[in-house]
Write a structure and sequence with these properties.
single chain, mainly alpha, 2 domains, three-stranded mixed β-sheet, 3 strands, 3% strand
Length: 428
C-alpha cells in the first residue's frame, strides 16, 4: 500500500482514509500502526471487489442513509458494513490471506433486500461457473450474432417467414426454425461437456420438438384471416381480427402444448413454474424500476415508434362496432395472456421441465430459440432478447418459478404499449 502523510487530509478526527487503494494519513496525528495498516488494507480489498467506484458510491449512500436515520455522524460511520468488517478484523494481521470476497455481507440482515440482491447475483455467478465453457459460449455467441446480422442486414424475417403467412406454410416453417436453432445449440453443448449420453433419453428429443412445434404453429396459424376474407368481413374488422388472432390463437396453442407436456410428464413439474414462491421478487421489481428510465428513452426511438403500440387505436377505432375501451381491453387481455404463455413455454417447460433430463444445459438452447420468436421485432428488442432470455432462464432454473420473468418481460411489453397508446390518444 502507498501511504501519503500530510497535514490536512483527512479532515476532522480521522487519522487516515483510503481512496482507490492509496492511504492518506494526517502526519500531525502520528504514524500508522500495523493494525491501522491492516484496517486500511481491508478497505482496499473491499474497493477492489466493488471496482472502486462502486465502493465509493455505496459507501457514500449508506453513510448518508444511516446519518438520516440516527442523526449522529460518527455512529453512522461505525455502523457501515464496510467499517464493521474492517474494525472487527483489523487485529487479525493474516486476515487478508483467508478473507472471502464480499465478507462484509455477513453483517447484512438475512431478510434484507441487500442480502437478497447478493444472493441473486450469487446464483447467476454460480450457474455460469457450472455451465460455462469457452467453446460452447463462443459457438452460441457466433450463432446468435449470425442470426442478428441476417435479420438486420438481410431481413430474413421478411424473406423467409413473412411470405409463408400468405402461402399457408407458416405453421410448418416457423416450428422448423425454432427446432433447428434449439438442437443446433443443444447437441454441441452436450458434446463439449462430454454429456452426449443425455441424448439417449427420448424425452430430450420428443418434448422440445412437441413444445416448439405447437408454439411455432400457433405463431404461424393464419387460417382465421382467410376465413374472414371469405365471409365478407370489412377491411377494418379483418385487420383487428388479424391483430387479435395473432395473440389469441398463439395463446391457445401454447396452453395446448403445456397441457400435452404436463400429461406426458405426469404432472411432475406443477404448473411449469407458476407456483407460490416469493424468491427474488423484490429484486425483480427493483431491476424493473431501475430500467424504466431506459425503457422510456427507447420508447421514443424511430423504430419503436413505428412498432409500438401494437394496438393502434387510431386505425382500429370503430372495428366490430365496439367502443374504444372494449377494443383495447380485449386485445390487451390476450396480449398479457400471450406473454404469460411464452414464459410458461420457454422458462417453464423448456427450462424447469427439461432440467430433469438436461440439468443446467437446458438454459442456453432455450435462450437461442427464444431469440428467434423476436425476429421481425425492433432491432434492439431482438438483440436484447437472447441476453434477457438467458438470464431469466438461469433464474427460472435456480428458483423453479416464473414470476421474475413475468414481472420483467410482461412489464416491459405493457410499458411500451401504455406509452404508445397514451401518445396516440393525446394526438387524437
Amino acid at each position: 500500500m502507498k501511504v501519503i502523510y500530510n497535514k490536512y487530509f483527512p479532515f476532522g478526527s480521522f487519522l487516515a482514509t483510503n481512496i482507490f487503494g492509496i492511504i492518506f494519513c494526517r502526519s500531525d496525528k502520528g504514524r500508522l500502526s500495523e493494525i491501522d495498516k491492516n484496517h486500511e488494507y481491508i478497505h482496499t480489498l473491499q474497493q477492489r471487489e466493488m471496482l472502486f467506484l462502486g465502493f465509493m458510491l455505496w459507501y457514500s449512500i449508506e453513510w448518508l442513509w444511516r446519518y438520516l436515520k440516527c442523526r449522529d455522524f460518527m455512529k453512522a460511520y461505525h455502523d457501515l458494513y464496510f467499517e464493521r468488517e474492517a474494525y472487527m478484523m483489523e487485529s487479525d494481521l493474516d486476515y487478508r490471506h483467508h478473507r472471502k470476497p464480499f465478507a462484509w455481507m455477513m453483517f447484512v440482515p438475512k431478510d434484507s433486500l441487500l442480502h437478497e440482491i447478493d444472493s441473486f447475483f450469487g446464483d447467476l455467478a454460480a450457474f455460469i461457473r457450472k455451465d460455462f465453457l469457452w467453446g460452447k459460449y463462443l459457438f452460441a455467441m457466433v450463432l446468435a450474432v449470425s442470426i442478428i446480422i441476417a435479420q438486420l442486414h438481410f431481413h430474413i424475417y421478411d424473406l423467409i417467414i413473412a411470405p409463408t403467412f400468405d402461402d399457408g406454410t407458416s405453421m410448418l416453417r416457423i416450428p422448423l426454425i425454432f427446432i433447428m436453432v434449439y438442437f443446433l445449440v443443444l447437441i454441441p453443448s452436450l458434446a463439449m461437456h462430454h454429456e452426449l449420453w443425455r441424448l439417449r433419453r427420448w424425452q430430450v428429443w420428443v418434448f422440445p420438438v412437441i413444445l416448439l412445434t405447437i408454439d411455432g404453429a400457433g405463431q404461424g396459424f393464419y387460417g382465421y384471416v382467410h376465413w374472414a376474407e371469405a365471409h365478407g368481413v370489412t377491411l377494418k374488422d379483418q385487420c383487428y381480427l388479424r391483430l387479435l388472432g395473432s395473440y389469441m390463437f398463439r395463446s391457445v396453442f401454447i396452453v395446448l402444448s403445456l397441457c400435452v407436456f404436463r400429461w406426458l410428464t405426469e404432472g411432475r413439474f406443477g404448473l411449469f413454474g407458476l407456483k407460490r414462491s416469493g424468491k427474488y421478487l423484490r429484486v425483480y421489481a427493483l431491476i424493473y424500476v431501475l430500467l424504466l428510465p431506459m425503457f422510456l428513452m427507447v420508447s421514443f426511438t424511430p423504430q419503436f415508434l413505428s412498432f409500438y403500440p401494437i394496438m393502434h387505436i387510431d386505425f382500429y377505432d370503430g372495428a366490430l362496432g365496439w367502443e374504444r375501451w372494449q377494443l383495447i381491453g380485449l386485445f390487451e387481455t390476450f396480449y398479457i395472456n400471450d406473454y404469460i404463455g411464452v414464459e410458461g413455454m420457454f422458462r417453464g417447460a423448456l427450462v424447469i421441465g427439461m432440467a430433469r433430463w438436461l440439468g443446467c444445459r437446458a438454459v442456453l438452447p432455450m435462450a437461442l430459440a427464444y431469440m428467434c420468436i423476436h425476429l421481425g421485432k425492433p432491432d434492439l428488442e431482438l438483440c436484447s432478447s437472447v441476453i434477457g432470455g438467458y438470464i431469466l432462464g438461469i433464474l427460472a432454473w435456480r428458483t423453479h418459478h416464473l414470476w421474475g420473468g413475468i414481472i420483467i418481460h410482461l412489464g416491459i411489453a405493457l410499458f411500451f404499449e401504455a406509452v404508445g397508446i397514451t401518445r396516440l390518444l393525446l394526438q387524437m
